[in-house]
Amino acid sequence: MTDAARSYEVLARRYRSRGFEEVVGQEAIASTLRNAIENHRTAHAYLFCGTRGVGKTSMARIFAKALNASGGLLGEEAAVGNAILQGRDVDVIEIDAASNRGIDDARDLIASAGIAPMRGPYRIYIIDEVHMLTPAAFNALLKTMEEPPRHVKFILCTTEPHQVPATIQSRCQRFDFRAISASRIAAHLAAVLEQEKITSEPEVLHRIARMANGSMRDALSLLDRLASGATGTLTARQLEELFGLPEDSVIDAILAAIGRGDAGATLRDSAQLLDRGLTAERLLDSLAERLRELLVVATCGAESELLETPAERREALAAVAEAFDPAQISSLIALCDAVGRSSRSSSSPRALLDAALVRMAMSERFAESAALLAGGGGTPAKKLLAPVAGAAEVVRPRRVMAEPRSAPPVAPVATVEPKPTPPSPPPSSVSPAASSASPAASTATPLDLEGLWSRLRAAVAGSARRAALLESIEPVAFDGRTLLVRPSASGASRWLETRPEPLLELLREVAGRAIAVGFEAVEREAPRPSSEHVSSPLLEHPLVKKAVEILDGTVVRVMPTVAWGTTEGAVEGEER
Questions:
Q1: End of a domain among 139, 155, 176?
Q2: Is the pTM of this model over 0.70?
Q3: Same-domain status, 273 and 252
Q4: Where are the beta strands (DSSP E) in 107-227?
Q5: Which tens digits make up the pLDDT trace of 77-130?
């Protein structure tokens, strides 16, 4: 073995912070501790809390160095500072509470606290993982930590602050170390590679930073593993092979298949990753992570700072995000999390994964079942795209309420008005009688109702998603400014009244200008069949009978509905 091999020091140790100015992501804490030393306002005990690898122990050593190697050492400041940073100084005692956690260890610490420091002004105790001390050891330290000798200071470090007794915390100044952002970690890794004379693809550093989950030490360790086995430039392919990560292109293909509702392609693409040894849980985690990026793109745009990906990837993410809206992405993330947790303890995780992927791809049909279960009267449309930037501002429609049976219903109309170019109040309602084209409207546009509807049909040809907009409504009237529609026999427009943006965009595209949309109220059916005309074993169920009796209701029909994992019958009732 060569001397170079024996002397190799891992990146996590070689690039450990040596001063307050080198600490990454904890600038506020470093500034506070530095100012406390300069103003002679240092406390006798500190508690550093935070997840692993965020700089707690490094900050404790830097703080101890600033206290003990600041002068009066007859030129030995550098040697003392190096000894403190390496954990070898006689006046800075580092204790691992995981292996020295008993009351006898605490008593030894208390006894040694009375010894004066040999070189520096303070005798400093750095207790790592202090939450591992036993209750008896904590109790033994209480008095000493509250009133220690003037030359003694305690710095306690822990990843589990809730396990540190409140009596100990009350005697310390507490500092909470934050997880380091992926962008800061990636920038630090780039600086390390520059000093190591190693080249890398930008995507590699961003993916390592995300894998580290806010821990700089974990990020440096991952980078060290990759650099030790790679030759030449570090590539994303090498990263995927070494850590068993799914390829970005395959994840994008799976999400694209989900977006267009292709369940078969979704399963085939996922099988590629599973055949390479990727676990179902890891695949779901990767999908959830990518869906989070799509959620940021869909809500904040591809240029948002919340998107911690290189610029080359943002365009591809924006293309995939066009097939989803934020509400749908949120549901898919929740589904990935739920199935991922279930797969850990399941004997057939592959079945759970495939079922989840098919459900993602067929989310439209599950939405249809949910609408029927909630009492919806028709088939909901395809998944709606998120509103395009700069789209017309809409006035949300009023809910159209049915009149009592005793009185004939009035036909109010809910109108959705796009944002007009010159500010003008949107019309509150449009009636069929007022829908005849006015002379001004006829002059402004040559389109009539038949011509507009024909253009709409031609515009949605070949797109099932956009054609669904027209399948759920029927045209009633068009006055040149407002298109009046009613629910079709095959579908209900209730979903469209609350989400009219896709229809408004389609109208703008066809007519070349903003056109409002009015929704005609649907009259209630006057007589309803009695329960005697409905036959089903479900009607004999005691709970159903009791519900009909309490609500004084009439069962009009029994519909089979399909929910996730169950097949049940749903009874649609109506108040008399």
A1: 176
A2: no
A3: yes
A4: 123-128, 152-158, 173-176
A5: 888 888 999 888 899 999 999 898 899 999 999 999 988 888 888 999 999 999
